Amino acid sequence: MDDTLIVGDMTLKHPCILIPKNKGEPVRKVILELDLLDKGLKIVSVDADLCLPLSRMLSSEEMALLPEEARQDDREFESHDKFLTLEDILGFTPSYEVVGDIALIEADEADAEKIGKALLEIHRHVKTVLGAISAVEGEFRTRRFKVIAGDGRTDTVHKDHGCKYHVDLSRAYFTPRLSTERQRIVSQVGENDVVVDMFAGVGPYSIPLAKKCKRVIAMDKNPDAIHFLKENVILNSVDNIEAIEGDANEIVRNYEGMADHVIMNLPHSADAFLDAAVLATASGGVIHYYGMTHEDDLYDSSLKLISNAAEKAGRTIEVLECRTVRSYAPHQYNVCIEVRVS
C-alpha cells in the first residue's frame, strides 16, 4: 500500500481526469465510487473543464464508466493541509493491506497495537485493523484473525474496478493484491464467451468477467463463499452467473466441453483439478492455471502436469503464456500458466 500523504502547500504534478464542468459532479461521484479520487489534493477548474486529481491512472475498463468527453492527463495540483505518513508516526513503514474499510496486518508484529492505531489515523476510511493469526487454512480456505484496533468487524464491502464485494474475511478468503491480475484475465474474454470459475470465492473473478462475457459458471466448496457470491451478484446487478456450492471435480462434469475459459485460482492445490478443467474446456478454449512454485522450477513441473491431464483425455495443449504473478514467500512464487486446449 502507498501510505504517503501530501505535505503543505506544495504544487505537484499528478494524474487526473479532465471533464466539462457541467458533467463534473456525476464523474466525481464515479471516481469516488472507484475510490480513486485523491482527497489530499484540491479539485481545480481549467478553462471550461473540471480537473479531478486521481490516486492513479484509470484503466480502459474504468474509463469506459465515464462520459466520452472525459480524458486523462497530468496536471499540477495544490495540496490540502499537511498529512503524516506511517513512517512519521512509527519510524518505519509496516506491511499491510486494506480490504474495504478493514486493514490487515500480521498479528505477531512486535508493534501491532501501535501499527493499528497509526493505520486508523492515516487511513480515515479504515474502521478496523485485524491481525492474521493463521495462514489460509482448511478446505474452505479461511484465515483466523484477532482485533488489533477499531470496531472489531470482520465483514466489509470492498470496491475494485467498478465492482463491489461483500465479504466476511473470517468466513471466506479475499485479497485485493490480485486486482491487476484479475483485470488481465478479464481483458482476454469476449462477449460471447462462457467462463468456468472453478474456485470462485466471493466472486473477484466471476463478477467482472460476467460484466463482459455471455455466461459465468462459478463454483466453490465453501458455503459461506457461495453465500457472499450470490449477494455480490445482486450487489453488482449481473444476471449471468450460475453460483454452485460443491466440489469442482464433480460439478464440472455437468459442463463438459462448454468453457471458452477455465479459471483455476487455487494455487496450492489446483493440480488436483486438472482432469476436470480439461473436461470442461471447449476445443480452442483456454485454461488459466495458478500454481505456487519454487524459483528453481517456476513452470516446468506445472506444465508437465497440465500436459499429462490433456494427454489422458486425448487432447493437446498450446502454451500461451507463463508468468510470475507475485512473490509469495522466500524463493516461492505465485505463477499463472495459460494454455489453449485442442
UniProtKB/TrEMBL annotation:
GO CC, one annotated term: cytoplasm
GO molecular function: tRNA (guanine(37)-N1)-methyltransferase activity
Alphabetized InterPro entries for the sequence: MeTrfase_TRM5/TYW2, SAM-dependent_MTases_sf, TRM5-TYW2-like_MTfase, TRM5/TYW2-like_N, Trm5a/b_N
Gene3D superfamilies: 3.30.70.2580, Met-10+ protein-like domains, Vaccinia Virus protein VP39
CDD domains per UniProt: AdoMet_MTases
Matches recorded under PANTHER family: TRNA (GUANINE(37)-N1)-METHYLTRANSFERASE (PTHR23245:SF36), TRNA METHYLTRANSFERASE (PTHR23245)
Top EC class, one word: transferase
Source species, domain of life: Archaea
Protein name: tRNA (Guanine37-N1)-methyltransferase
Enzyme Commission identifier(s): 2.1.1.228
Keyword Methyltransferase appears in the UniProt entry: yes
Keywords assigned by UniProt, alphabetized: Cytoplasm, Methyltransferase, S-adenosyl-L-methionine, Transferase, tRNA processing
GO biological process, one term: tRNA N1-guanine methylation
High-level lineage: Archaea, Methanobacteriati, Methanobacteriota, Stenosarchaea group, Methanomicrobia
Pfam families: TRM5-TYW2_MTfase (PF02475), Trm5_N (PF18093), TYW2_N_2 (PF25133)
SAM-dependent methyltransferase TRM5/TYW2-type domain mapped to chain residues: 96-342
Keyword tRNA processing: yes
Natural source organism: Methanococcoides alaskense
